[in-house]
Design goal:
binds 2-acetamido-2-deoxy-beta-D-glucopyranose; four-stranded mixed beta sheet; single chain; binds protoporphyrin IX containing FE; 499 residues
C-alpha cells in the first residue's frame, strides 16, 4: 500500500528528511561530547551555547561573565565554542588549587591559536604568543632588567618619573587643589618609567599621550572587535572598517616610535648601553638571527612597552579610587608613611605594611589582567570540583584540553575569601594558606608575568608618594571595562596638597 500511494510515499520521505535535518541541525548546534569513556566524568557544561559564549568572550564585560559562570555553574566548566572548537576542548578553571597545578606544570604550553591576537597588536610575532626557543631569550632579558639586582636603578627611575609627574600635574603649596583623569595620567607616568627602565629612553609627554591613545585603539580592535567579527581580521576585507584602518596606522606609528628608541640606544656609547640591562641584553649580537631578526626584536620591545604600562597604571588608579572610598584607610596609610620617614625617597617608605596590603588587596579585587591566560593540560587530571548542582564530585580534565585561568573570578572565590567583592586590605594581616594559594594576579609558573617586581615596586612607590603628600577625593567614577586588560577611563580624582 505504501508503494502504491505516491502522496503517502512523499509524506514518508519528507518526514524522514525532516527528521534527518533536525538531527543534523541538533548536531551542528550543540556538537557532541567526546566519545572517550573516563572513570570519572568530564566537568559539567557551562550551560551557555556557542553564541552566548562567543559574545561574552568578545565583550568588555568578560570579567563579570567569568565570575558569574564560576559562581552559578561551577569552578570548572566546559565552555562551548563549538563549531569553532571541538566539544570538551576549553574549560574555565577557577579552582585555585587546580589552576595552580596546571600553571606550575612546566609542560603546560600556551596554545598559539589563542594568543595570536597579540602578534596583530604588535605588528609582528612577539614572545608572549610563542613557545620554544622563540620566547626564551626575550623573557630572560626582561627578567635581567626587572630584578632585585637592578632594584636601585629601578627605584631611581621611578622616583624621577614621580618627581616630574607631580610637578606637571599637582599643586605644590598647602591647600592647592588639582583634578586628574587618573587612569590616563597613571598610564602616561608608567609609560615614562617603562621607557626609562627597560629601554633607557625618556619618552616626552607627547609620546606618552600618543602611546596611551594608540594602544587603547589597538587593544580594542585586535582584542575585541576583530575577535567578535573575524571578517575584520582579513587583510583586505578588514580594511572596510575605518577603525581597523586606524588601528593598523596606530600599529605602524608605534613601531616607528620603537624603532627610534632602538636607534637611540644603539647611538649610545658601549658604557651607556650596558646600564640599560633589558634592552642591552635583548639587542645582544646574533640573538635574533634564528628567531626573526630585527623585526622580531621590535615586536618584543613593543610587547614589553605595552604590557608594562597599562596594567600597572590601572592598578595604581584602582588603589587610589579605593582609598578615596575608604577615607579611614587613606588617613591611616598617610600616618604610617609619615611616621616611617620624612624623606619621600627613603626605601623605608615602601616598607609600610599597610601600603603592601593596599597594593595586594587592589591586585586581588581589580586584577588588571582579568582575562588571564590559557594552557594546554599536559596530562589527564582527576580533580574534585562543583558538580553544577550545588555539590562536589570527582571529574576528569582530559589530556590536551585547554584550561582558561582568569584571575578575576579566581581572586573573588567565595570559598577562599570572606566578603570577596569588598576591598579589605586588613584581610592580608592573617592570610590563610588558601588565600596564598589563590593569590595569582600575575599567574604563576614558567610563563607568569616577568614584570611583576616592577609592577609591585612601581605601585608602592607611586602610591606612597601620592598619598603621603596629597589628600585624594573621588569626583567622578567610571565603570571598569575589559579589553585585553581591565581599564577605568574617565575617572576623575581630586588631589589636595597637605602641609
Ligand atoms: C599590575 C601589573 C601587571 C599585571 C597584573 C600583569 C599580569 C600578567 C599576567 C597574568 C601575565 C600572564 C599571561 C598569560 O599567562 O597568558 C603576564 C604576562 C606578561 N607580562 Fe605582565 N602584568 C603586569 C605588569 C607587567 C609589567 C610592568 C611588565 C613589564 C615588562 C609586564 C610584562 C609582561 C610580559 C612580557 C608577559 C608575557 C610573558 C611570557 O609570555 O612569558 N607585565 N602579565
Ligand atoms: C560582542 O558581540 C556581541 C554580538 O555580536 C555584540 O552585541 C557586543 O556588542 C560585542 N561586544 C563588544 C564589546 O563589542
Ligand atoms: C643616531 O645617530 C645618527 C647618526 O649620528 C643620527 O642621524 C640619528 O638621528 C640618531 N638617532 C637617534 C634616535 O638618536
Ligand atoms: C590578625 O591576628 C591578630 C593576632 O591573632 C589579631 O590581633 C588581629 O585582629 C587579626 N587581624 C584581622 C584583620 O583579623
Amino acid at each position: 500500500m505504501f508503494e502504491k500511494d505516491p502522496t503517502t510515499r512523499l509524506w514518508a520521505v519528507s518526514s524522514v528528511a525532516a527528521f534527518l535535518l533536525a538531527a543534523l541541525s541538533y548536531f551542528f548546534l550543540f556538537g557532541q561530547r567526546s566519545k572517550k569513556k573516563y572513570k570519572y566524568p568530564l566537568p559539567p557544561r557551562s550551560g551557555y551555547g556557542f553564541l552566548e559564549t562567543f559574545q561574552h568572550f568578545n565583550s568588555t564585560k568578560l570579567h563579570e561573565w567569568t565570575l558569574e559562570v564560576a559562581r552559578t555553574r561551577g569552578r570548572i566548566v566546559e565552555m562551548n565554542l563549538w563549531p569553532l572548537l571541538p566539544r570538551d576542548t576549553l574549560y574555565a578553571v577557577t579552582d585555585p588549587v587546580v589552576a595552580r597545578k596546571i600553571l606550575e606544570n612546566p609542560r603546560s604550553l600556551k596554545p598559539r591559536e589563542l594568543y595570536e591576537f597579540f602578534d596583530r597588536m604588535m605588528g609582528g610575532v612577539c614572545f608572549i604568543s610563542e613557545e620554544g626557543e622563540r620566547y626564551k631569550h626575550p623573557r630572560k632579558s626582561t627578567l635581567m632588567g626587572i630584578s632585585h639586582a637592578n632594584m636601585d636603578d629601578m627605584l631611581a627611575n621611578i622616583h624621577a618619573v614621580m618627581d616630574k609627574w607631580i610637578q606637571d600635574n599637582l599643586g605644590s603649596e598647602e591647600g592647592d587643589v588639582a583634578c586628574v583623569d587618573i587612569g590616563f595620567e597613571m598610564q602616561k607616568a608608567t609609560i615614562h618609567s617603562i621607557g626609562l627602565i627597560a629601554f633607557g629612553y625618556d619618552f616626552s609627554t607627547a609620546e606618552q599621550e600618543f602611546t596611551s591613545n594608540a594602544l587603547a585603539k589597538i587593544t580594542y580592535e585586535f582584542g575585541i572587535a576583530s575577535e567578535k567579527n573575524p571578517l575584520r581580521k582579513h587583510p583586505i576585507i578588514g580594511l572596510l572598517w575605518a577603525d581597523k584602518r586606524e588601528a593598523i596606522r596606530c600599529v605602524e606609528d608605534v613601531r616607528c616610535l620603537v624603532r627610534k628608541v632602538l636607534q637611540a640606544h644603539r647611538n649610545k656609547s658601549f658604557e651607556e648601553q650596558k646600564k640599560v640591562v633589558t634592552l642591552n641584553s635583548l639587542d645582544a649580537p646574533g640573538k635574533y638571527d634564528e628567531i626573526g631578526g630585527e623585526e622580531s626584536l621590535l615586536s618584543d620591545m613593543i610587547l614589553l612597552y605595552a604590557a608594562g604600562f597599562d596594567t600597572t597604571g590601572y592598578t595604581i588608579s584602582y588603589a587610589l579610587v579605593e582609598l578615596c572610598k575608604n577615607k579611614d584607610i587613606q588617613t591611616q596609610l598617610r600616618k604610617e608613611l609619615l611616621d616611617a620617614t620624612q624623606d619621600p625617597k627613603d626605601k623605608k617608605l615602601i616598607g609600610s605594611p599597610l601600603l603592601k596590603r593596599v597594593v595586594k588587596e587592589t591586585l586581588r579585587l581589580w586584577p588588571v589582567a582579568a582575562g588571564g591566560g590559557i594552557r594546554r593540560v599536559p596530562d589527564k587530571m582527576i580533580v574534585t570540583s562543583d558538580d553544577g548542582k550545588g555539590g562536589k564530585r570527582l571529574m576528569t580534565l582530559p589530556k590536551g584540553s585547554w584550561a582558561h585561568v582568569a584571575p578575576y573570578p579566581l581572586l573573588r572565590d567565595d570559598e577562599v575569601f570572606d566578603r570577596p567583592d569588598e576591598w579589605l586590605p586588613s584581610r592580608w594581616e592573617n592570610a590563610t594558606d588558601d588565600m596564598k594559594t589563590a593569590f595569582m594576579p600575575f599567574m604563576v609558573g614558567r610563563r607568569s608575568c616577568p614584570g611583576q617586581l616592577l609592577a609591585i615596586t612601581e605601585s608602592e612607590v607611586f602610591l606612597a608618594r601620592l598619598v603621603r603628600d596629597y589628600e585624594w577625593t573621588l569626583i567622578e567614577e567610571s565603570i571598569p571595562e575589559w579589553s585585553v586588560t581591565l581599564k577605568i577611563k574617565g575617572t576623575i580624582l581630586q588631589a589636595t596638597k597637605i602641609g
